[in-house]
Design brief:
By secondary structure, this protein is an alpha+beta fold. The chain has three domains: 4-65, Beta-grasp domain (Ubiquitin-like (UB roll)); 67-151, Multidrug-efflux Transporter Regulator, Chain: A, Domain 2; 171-250, no CATH class. The chain has helices at 23-29, 78-85, 89-97, 114-128, 174-185, 198-203, 212-230; strands at residues 4-8, 11-15, 40-44, 47-49, 60-65, 75-76, 103-104, 110-113, 152-154, 158-161, 164-168, 191-192, 235-240, 245-250. It has a five-stranded mixed β-sheet with strand order 2-1-5-3-4, with no helix packed on it. It is flat, with a radius of gyration of 22 Å. It starts with a strand and ends in a 5-residue tail after the last strand.
Length: 255
């Protein structure tokens, strides 16, 4: 078993027993030990990682402070804020009407202070318990968006959520990769038809007799789905379509 290495500035430490915990949990547990500020992003072996990423043995996690104007964080134009939050223009107007803070930059154009935006959504969440409109993550980052605006992507090596890695497969098994590739090719619709063509195998079965090949492939599909669920705690994969298809849904702990 390999320890997890964590870097913050010039501070590098190795930790045992934190594998299987999320970035958000690590930020909370090691906040004082590593002097972590809330305005840090996590990178895992060079990949920008979501606060939901489950740390693995041997990972190298680097926390990098988001650069920006002192006291303001980054200054984002309305267009940049809409893009970063992955919200519609209607949602943006909705939040403006609720008091989303807006300031003028040096050239007189409207912009948003990232820190002020974070504080706004934290306050909004505490006061009204927003659900679909909630744009606050476990660590208060504006980069983790509500379920209705989440975007998944599989690049053949990792699954990303809004550009941040939630899990990776260092040696993705063929059957797991086939499921993920099918979802990616279909823009992550919530249910795909049989990616293993089990229905074609079933057609070869003699009436009233079990098809050994079909039983073997169904077992492989079940194993692939089980392994996909072990790697992350954001989405849940299950069988569908009489056991031939595959579907996914957000887990209950995703907000």
């Amino acid at each position: 078993m390999m320890a997890v290495q964590i870097i913050h500035g010039s501070n590098l430490q190795s930790f045992d027993g934190i594998e299987g915990t999320t970035i958000a949990e690590i930020k909370t547990r090691l906040r004082d030990v590593l002097n972590l500020s809330p305005e840090v992003n996590a990178y895992c072996d060079g990949d920008l990682a979501s606060v939901h990423y489950l740390v693995e043995d041997g990972d190298v996690i680097e926390f990098v402070r988001i650069q920006g104007s002192k006291g303001l964080g980054r200054l984002l134009t309305p267009e940049e804020l809409v893009y970063e939050l992955k919200i519609s223009n209607e949602d943006y107007t909705y939040f403006l009407n609720l008091g989303l803070p807006i300031i003028k930059n040096s050239s007189g154009a409207d912009c948003h202070s990232e820190i002020a935006v974070d504080d706004f959504f934290k306050s909004l969440h505490e006061k009204s318990g927003l659900e679909e409109k909630n744009a606050v993550s476990q660590d208060g980052s504006i980069s983790e968006i509500s379920v209705s605006n989440k975007e998944l992507e599989w690049d053949g090596r990792k699954i990303s959520l809004n550009g941040k890695m939630i899990c990776r497969y260092k040696n993705a098994a063929e059957h797991q990769a086939k499921i993920l590739r099918s979802f990616q090719d279909n823009n992550w619709i919530h249910e795909i038809s049989d990616p293993f063509e089990l229905d074609e195998i079933e057609k070869k079965s003699a009436p009233g007799k079990k098809n050994a090949e079909l039983i073997e492939w169904q077992a492989k599909r079940r194993a692939a789905i089980a392994e996909l669920n072990k790697k992350q705690n954001i989405i849940k994969f299950t069988s569908s379509g009489h056991g031939f298809g595959v579907k996914w849904e957000w887990r209950e702990n995703v907000s």
